[in-house]
Structure formats: structure tokens, C-alpha cells
Write a structure and sequence with these properties.
By secondary structure, the protein is of the alpha+beta class. 22% of the residues lie in helices and 34% in strands. The longest helix is centred in the last third of the chain and has 12 residues.
């Protein structure tokens, strides 16, 4: 088993217009370091290969992030605090029977919850909120919902798309264009092994 894990920041197309950051996670220390960038047009056309997981970073007000790692036929969710993942803490397994997700609307931000019977992770993100007094981000970048946390919750809430994501991560790849499509959840299909 390698000592490092390769991660890609999962974000909306407009957030990644300058490129999508790649990171390396040190298994022993849990430290995450930036290792490069994938150009937007390359990620759209070819996807990303040699990945072991994704990382999601809220815009504001949460300072901690979410790391989703493939692990033995499933995906585990870990919190990232100050650039470090606590690998000694038991993660949230997305295939656990008690796994649940929620989205709560607030005035300035939305709250995203990932939980199982033992742990709860809560992230607050203002992604998709007002950019000015008259225009929202949805007016400028018209998509159904481009918040990375919301997109991940939509993927994990649908059994077919969740399994498709797990198979993608098992193959150490991320077909980004499939996961940002507005109807990705409805049309995701499991590919034969």
C-alpha cells in the first residue's frame, strides 16, 4: 500500500475555470499538500486519472473541509482541519445503513450534513448565494445546483449514482463531466466491471 494518497479538489466549473488543484495526502501524518493543477478543459474532456479520492472546500463560513476516500469497496468521509486529515478517527462510510445526508437553507449560507450512527460532519457554505444586490450566481452560471457539497449529496443520495461514483473511485479516476451534469443523478448508470 503506498504511503501517499492522490486527491483532486471537487468544485464547480466556474470555481475551477483557472484549474483544479491536486493534492497528496500522507497516510502516516494525515497532512495534505498541494502537488499541482489540472486544466479545466482537460478535466472536462478526459477526466482525471490516478486518484484515490476527492476533497471539498466550502467558500465560507466553514474553515474545515471534507475528504472522500475510496476504501475497500466503499467511500469513507473524513473531516479536514487545518490541512490535516485525522486518519485515526473512524470515518463515515457512505454504504453504512445509518448513513444520511441533509441540506438546510439559511439566510447567507446552506448547511450540509453527513452523518452515521457514530459521527456527524456539518459544513456551512455560501456557494450559490448572492453576488450582488440583483444578481445571483445562478443568473451568471445557470446550472441546477453547482455547490460541490450539494452535488456530492445528490450523488450519494441516489443508489445508482453512488455506486457509479464508487466504481469510478475504485478505478482511480473521476469522470468530471458526468458528475457536474445537471441531470447526472437521474442518468448515472453503473458500468459493468
Amino acid at each position: 500500500m503506498p504511503d501517499t494518497i492522490s486527491l483532486l479538489q471537487f468544485q464547480s466549473p466556474w470555481q475551477g475555470r483557472a484549474g483544479f488543484k491536486r493534492y497528496t495526502l500522507d497516510r502516516s501524518s494525515g497532512q495534505i499538500t498541494e502537488t499541482g493543477c489540472i486544466k479545466f478543459h482537460k478535466l472536462i474532456r478526459k477526466g482525471a486519472k490516478n486518484l484515490d479520492g476527492i476533497i471539498l472546500r466550502p467558500a465560507w463560513p466553514s474553515r474545515h473541509q471534507l475528504c472522500a476516500l475510496f476504501h475497500e469497496e466503499t467511500v469513507h468521509l473524513y473531516p479536514v482541519v487545518a490541512g490535516q486529515v485525522d486518519m485515526s478517527r473512524s470515518p463515515i462510510d457512505v454504504l453504512d445503513n445509518s448513513f444520511r445526508t441533509e441540506i438546510h437553507e439559511r439566510l447567507l449560507y446552506r448547511t450540509f450534513l453527513f452523518a452515521n450512527s457514530d459521527h456527524t460532519l456539518i459544513f456551512r457554505d455560501m456557494e450559490g448565494r448572492l453576488l450582488g444586490p440583483q444578481r445571483t450566481a445562478f443568473d451568471i452560471f445557470p446550472m441546477e445546483d453547482f455547490s460541490p457539497f450539494s452535488r456530492l449529496i445528490q450523488i450519494l443520495s441516489n443508489p445508482v449514482s453512488r455506486m457509479s461514483l464508487i466504481l469510478d473511485m475504485q478505478a482511480h479516476r473521476l469522470d468530471y463531466s458526468k458528475w457536474i451534469a445537471t441531470n447526472a443523478v437521474a442518468q448515472a448508470s453503473v458500468k459493468p466491471a
